[in-house]
């Protein structure tokens, strides 16, 4: 079970308002469940959250092959025609995902995402699941 203290909508909106050309922001659990979102369609947010679970697992597998790495994924950036996708670890069992257009300032997105991750930690915990159950 995702434990959320307070509503994160205002934080997500603040990120979208601060960085022009952000289309959608999703906070998700490590197993791909949407916790919160801002912008875009809810169904897209759910599909994005599910895809992020696989992507963070793949990134962790790649990280484990890097000498001196602890094997944990911190940030994934994908550039595609028309825009960017960002996935950042947001604490134990949680991630922050951003879809942005091609005119976005990539450095500004990363910086603001890091700021948000610090703030999310005060509002969110996502305990590990065991046999499909939280805790």
From TrEMBL:
Coiled coil: none annotated. It holds the Pfam family Robl_LC7. Residues 9-100 form the Roadblock/LAMTOR2 domain. It comes from the Bacteria. Gene3D superfamilies: Dynein light chain 2a, cytoplasmic (3.30.450.30). The chain crosses the membrane at residues 75-98. InterPro entries: Mycobact_SerProt_Inhib_Rv3364c, Roadblock/LAMTOR2_dom. This is Putative regulator of Ras-like GTPase activity (Roadblock/LC7/MglB family). It comes from Streptomyces brevispora.
């Amino acid at each position: 079970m995702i434990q959320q203290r307070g509503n994160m909508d205002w934080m997500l909106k603040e990120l979208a308002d601060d960085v022009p050309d952000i289309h959608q922001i999703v906070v998700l659990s490590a197993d791909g469940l949407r916790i919160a979102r801002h912008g875009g369609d809810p169904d897209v947010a759910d599909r994005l959250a599910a895809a992020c679970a696989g992507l963070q697992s793949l990134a962790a597998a790649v990280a484990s092959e890097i000498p001196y790495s602890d094997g944990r994924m911190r940030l994934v950036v994908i550039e595609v025609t028309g825009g960017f996708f960002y996935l950042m670890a947001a604490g134990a069992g949680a991630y922050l995902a951003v879809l942005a257009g091609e005119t976005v300032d990539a450095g500004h997105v990363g910086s603001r995402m890091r700021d948000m991750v610090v703030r999310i930690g005060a509002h969110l915990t996502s305990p590990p699941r065991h046999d499909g159950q939280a805790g």
